[in-house]
Every structure is written in C-alpha cells, then in structure tokens.
Amino acid sequence: MMNVKSMRGELYLLFATLLAGVGWIASKLVVLEMPGPVFIGVRFFVASLILLPFCIHHIRQLSIKQILSLCGVGLLLSASLQVWVFAVSVTESLSEGAFIMSLAMIIAPFVSWILFRVKPNRAFWLSFPIAIIGMLLLTLGNGWNVEQSQIYFLLASMLLSIHFVMNKRVITNIKPIASICIQLFVVGVSGLAFASMTTQPEFEITKTLVFWFIVSAVVATSIRYLLQTVGQHSVNMEVAALIMILEPVWTLLLSVGVLGESVETQKLLGGTVIIASLFCYIKWSRRK
C-alpha cells in the first residue's frame, strides 16, 4: 500500500513539474500583452481564491503570529516573482531563465549561512563550483556577454533562495496547503498594490490573453501547487527534490516546441551542468 501511495505521489510531482513548465510558456505569452506586475497580482490572487476552499479550515486554526509570519515570507516570494516576471518579459530564452532560477536550491544553503550562521554541508561545497561552471557556460558567449534578463533571473533566484530559507523556519506545524494559499494571496495583493502605485501601459483583453491567463492562474498555479503539495506529502524529500529538477527541462522542451526557441549548444551544455550540480547536491546531501 505504501509503495502504491509513493508511486502516486511521484506521478503527482512529475505532473506538477510539467505544469510548472507550461506556466513558463503561458507567462511569456501573457506578458507579451499584459504588464507583468498586473499579471502577477491578478494571477496569484485568483490562484489563492481557488485554493481557499481546500484549506480554509486549516487557516482558521492558525494564530495571528503564524499568519503574520506567512505574510512576511509571502512578501519575499512576491519580490522574487516581480523580478522574475520582468526577466520573462525581456528574455529571448525562457529555458535559460528556468535553468538560472533552478540555482535557488544551491544558493539557499549559502543564504542560510549568512543569515543564521548555519554552515553548508560538504555536498554544497562540492556541487557549488559545478553550478558556477554551468552559469558561466550560460552567460559566456562571444567573450563576456551577460544579458539583462540573465542578471534579473539570477536576482530572482537569489530572492527565491531567501524565501526558501525563511519559509522553512516559518511553516513548522502549518499545513503546506494553508501556507501556500496565504502566501499566494499576499503575492496577489502586493502585486496589485505595486501595479496600482506605478504607471502601467494600457492593454487590451483578448481571447488569446484570457486563454493563457487561465492556463497560468488555474492550471500552472492552483492545480500545480495542489499536486505538488499532495505529492510531497507521500514522497521521500530527496526523491521529491530530484523530480522537481525536471521543471527547467520541461521548460526547455516546451519553449523549443511551442515558441520555436533555438538553444545554442554551449547554453544547452550550461543548463545540463546546472542540472548535474543540483542532482549531485541532492545525492551527496543524503550521505551526510
């Protein structure tokens, strides 16, 4: 029975990574027609409302301190997503951005060391140089040629790693789906507030925009997080982490197939090296 439950959880996680990849494509197509801050605000506000019925009873059991803590880490997530969506709007290579964003898992131990004096394990020091090599392969084309989107993707990844570290300290004794719902709500509200306080270009609501927005908000956010939460509940943490590495791989395949994106051999190698560094970090961490 446990094996069947575990296998089902692994399938949920696998499908969640695929939906996350779809989310990258949908987001790129939406921000071609809609300002990024507006998109982030509406997308995550709608997604939180969809998740609310599944966790309202858990949210009611939370203390004020727990809710405020979740709101705080939600603001960190919001900052990361605002930087991310800007990078998505200006990049010509979604797959490259997905590989850079996946570095958040490697950066997180370093952040924990700086903020809380928790020294990274041996696996970090072994895998971090591999990740750096992968990053250099992504950014070094004809000489030193760092693109604007790469800088913003890296900044978003750093902010996401801070969110990982702080979120892990906050969600003790809190149901994951309740935590996710509150944080998505904070991202939505803060995103809408940011959009209202800044000048945003006018945009027209078209059928194409509505379609890809629904895909992004409902499929790639609400359903994805539901599957991810259920899957992580029944799967070993290391196995779950290995499956989640597939997100940038799906993004690469979908961006080539749907958007017609071409990927240079060197950048493809860089992405492969980054995936290898994540794989090594997870595997070596299990040997501590």
From TrEMBL:
Its main location: membrane. InterPro entries: Diverse_Substrate_Transporter (IPR051258), EamA_dom (IPR000620), EmrE-like (IPR037185). SUPFAM superfamilies: Multidrug resistance efflux transporter EmrE. Keywords: Cell membrane, Membrane, Transmembrane, Transmembrane helix. One of its GO terms (cellular component) is plasma membrane. The chain crosses the membrane at residues 12-32, 38-55, 67-86, 98-116, 123-144, 150-166, 178-197, 209-227, 239-260, 266-284. It is a multi-pass membrane protein. It is found in: Cell membrane. Residues 8-139, 151-280 form the EamA domain. It comes from the Bacteria. This is EamA domain-containing protein. It comes from Vibrio toranzoniae.
